[in-house]
Amino acid sequence: MPAKTDVVSNEIKLQLYSLLYKTRATEDRIIALYRQGRIMGGVYTGRGVEATTVAAGLALEKQDYLFPIHRDLGAHLAKGQSVLNILLQYLGRGNSLTKGKDSGIHMSDTTLNIIGNVSHLGAMIPVAVGVAMAKKMQNEKVVTLNFIGEGGSNIGDFHEGLNFAAVHKAPFVLVIENNQYAYSTPAHKEYVCNRLSDRAQGYGIPGYHIDGTDALGVYATIKKAIEDARNGKGPSLIECLSMRMVGHSAHDDAFYVDKEQMKKYEKKDPFLRLEQVLRKEGLLDDKQIKRIQDTIDKEIEQATDIALNSPLPEAHWAAEGVYAE
Predict the structure, then answer these.
(1) Which 3-state string (H, E, C) describes 43-93?
(2) 279 is catalytic
(3) Where are the domains of the chain?
């Protein structure tokens, strides 16, 4: 069962709203730059799953480690990453976090304890568990949080990482972003269990199945799992059910997605859903919404201008930092 949302403060609710808007607006800008031919490589957006990624990132403390995957821009922003650094990375600039050497989705920032993914997504689960164990051995109250898709939950690293974490009570939280499609493969062709969270029973750890479009519910549940891990209770597996509202990447028109299913989830848009809740609670009105969105839009415009005018990497940099000294 998800945790009760009445533990979520008004301050956190407004932060969630601002971050959901910033995530969507930043991704819209990235897509626009991609269609203008300014971004090379793949663009994988999280439209429809932002409530999961933002809420998870915001639930972490400064000392905790985030291991995001390719649709987790919201978690990057919630952990403190700047829009400017994200755009510099996507545009391959020489002053980006990877100095223009890697794609927009392979981004780490050790100053924020963000460890970016490799393309073999599930391979990061054992790494995240390893960091959790290292911090536990050093007697530090640190939790690591990793994401995986429902497709990636079917590989060996998922089992091995979770089993090891469970046996050693690692301070680790694994969030399954079940957006119901692994590229073009629908969920019913990926697994036959009713809920992926039921797998937690096999590892002897708590498993939660929650609505991944409900930002407040996701935050409350993941926050509890993080604090349980911090207090020595071991790892948790949290399945957040949502719907990928776009194709696998910006070049993909999602022709293979069930249209009725898509219409159903359009009514559960996580950003609009949270806005409606906060309006009813009296935390937001038209004036406040405009102020929040105008501030974020200005930030994105400024970041875009700086990023586009930043230098490209030097050719000789390609041979630098390839091997350890």
Answers:
(1) CCCCCCCHHHHHHHHHHCCCCCEEECCCCCHHHHHHCCCCHHHHHHHHCCC
(2) no
(3) 25-305
| Residue 29 annotated to the active site | no
Class assignment of domain 25-305? alpha beta
- Residue from 224, 223, 231, 66 nearest 141 by CA: 231
Catalytic residue (choose from 248, 279, 291, 316): 248
pLDDT in tens, 166-202: 999 999 999 999 999 998 999 999 999 999 999 999 9
Q: What integer pLDDT is reported at residue 1 of this predicted model?
A: 60
Residues 40-71 have pLDDT tens digits of 888 999 999 999 999 999 999 999 999 999 99
Catalytic entry in 35, 251, 256, 291: 256
Alpha-carbon distances of 182 from 47, 242, 244, rounded to whole Å: 15, 13, 10
CA–CA separation, 268 and 49 (whole Å): 11
Give the pLDDT of residue 36: 95
209 annotated active-site: no
Q: Is 121 exposed, middle or buried (0-12, 13-18, 19+ CB in 10 A)?
A: buried
For the entire predicted model, the pTM comes to 0.94
Catalytic-role residue among 244, 265, 279, 323: 244
Give 224's DSSP letter.
H
